[in-house]
Amino acid sequence: MDRAAIPENDGETLCIPPASGFAEAIARNIRSAKERAAANTHLAKMAELARSSALSKAVEYTSSLGLQAPVAPSPLAPVICSGHQPELFHPGVAFKNITLMTAAKALGLTPLFISVDTDVFEAERAAIPSLNDGRIVKTDALIFPQPGRNRLYETAETESPDITLERLKAAIGLMDGPRLKIPRSAAESFLDRLNSSSMDTPDFTSRSIIIRRAWEKPVGENCLELKVSTLSTTGAFLEYAVDILRRLEDFTAAYNGELERYRKEHKLRYPINPFPNLGVKAGIAETPFWIIAGAGRERAYVEKLGGSLTMVSESGSLFEMEDILAGRAQIRPKAITLSIFLRLFVCDFFIHGCGGAKYDAISDGIMRKFYGIQPPEYACVSATLWPGAEAENPARRMEEIHGSLRDIEQKPELTAPPGAEAAALTGEKARLVEAIKYPGADRKAIGRRIKEINSALSAMQEPARKALAGELEHLTSLEKQWQAATARDYPFFIFDPARLVRIAGKEL
Q: How many Cα atoms are found within 13 Å in the side-chain-facing hemisphere of 13?
């Protein structure tokens, strides 16, 4: 979606298509799925198994966290889905969740949120607005410290629930002072809904879900939760993966071809943007999956050995296809293969953010080429919220000052102080500007004199220039505070979820 531009200002949203059109898009997706089922029984069976197992796992997992889960839905019920890495994401991402639940309630759908716990962990710190000598600044607060590097969300370590709660309290405590009362009040309300006992979970992702759900509680608790690491162990996903691996040459051609098309259309010069092609070296082909290795992950390759396909990890471990189907090789999808699986086999409608929506232009092309089908429609949803910190936007006055300083330098006659000397120089410059236009005029001499006049007029205004420069320096400090006060990457828990609900309700 080339129109998927991130909203810039407070309260602005992006929703393509409009939420009022979700019902029609879902209906079209369901009709297309029925047509695919009639034409390709293999895809139909995969979709039936994938949806049934995903919903079953989601109901089981959501209930295990002590969260309210919808009544176990029929595998044929419409499912609306979204997802993100399990972190303290900003309200633009949180708006996807709110839209997911709001649309599900309004349209009678089953909402399913996927926690992408198979990515590299990047959630140690959260940006918090705070005060430094009375100035608003962004401060990084340590929330989830991790040992080592390249750890995944699914293998991340957790401290005791009490320590996590204390870290959250310390982060919220940074918002001290009346200028930060709005975000602090929202964060304290969130803390009232969260307690350490509910965070006593077996893994990091589950804890992050509990934290998010405590924040979302005023919105409702009608959403199913599922981790990608769990989804990746289901028979439906493994069958999907093995089908791609057995036809890897065709998949690679579609994958790389769509990447090249995307780069050409968007004039991307570097081959790693938006992500690298799948490589083929000496008969060993890279796959669109990862292999779990220790606390991290490795690229996975396939080679033909004795007429059979064998998966090879970066470190040299070998796995047969039977090992994958039996779960002895823990594989995980890359972003594209995850999106295809969810959109094509698990849900009836997927809600992306801006990044995922742009990349799914590639997924759409792969589905057309590899499966020979028209891809399902999806949505792109985002929002920008400012936390409500009290700050002054000096942009207009700064623009005026920059203009005045340019005039003093380049057109000093416009800002010259009153007086006979300035008036005489201004009049002389006006006559010279006209004189230089005539044929035979000594342009060099006239130009030199105009420059001398400009210098003299500018010198008369040196006190005014210094005053403007001093004001600009002060306003630059205010500008930095304004930028800190209006940053869009603050964590969801310093915002009132009810505000996002009101915004989402207007969209439907």
A: 25
Rg (CA), the chain: 30
Distance, in Å, from the CA atom of 151 to the CA atom of 135, rounded to the nearest integer, reads 36
∠ CA 258-259-262 to the nearest 5 degrees?
Answer: 85
How are the residues of the chain apportioned to helix, strand and coil, as percentages rounded to the nearest 5?
Answer: 55, 15, 30
Average pLDDT of the chain, as a whole number: 91
The pTM assigned to this predicted structure is 0.89
Confidence grade of residue 306 (pLDDT, cut at 50, 70, 90): low
Q: Which residues of 322-358 are buried (b: 16+ CB within 10 A; e: fewer)?
A: ebbeeeebbbbbbbbbbbbbbbbbbbbbbbbbbebbb
Q: Do 136 and 151 touch, CB atoms closer than 8 A?
A: no
Is the peptide bond between 86 and the residue preceding it cis, with omega within 30 degrees of 0?
no
| Cα 252 from Cα 283, distance rounded (Å) | 13
Distance CA 72, CA 77 (A): 10
pLDDT, residue 58, reads: 95
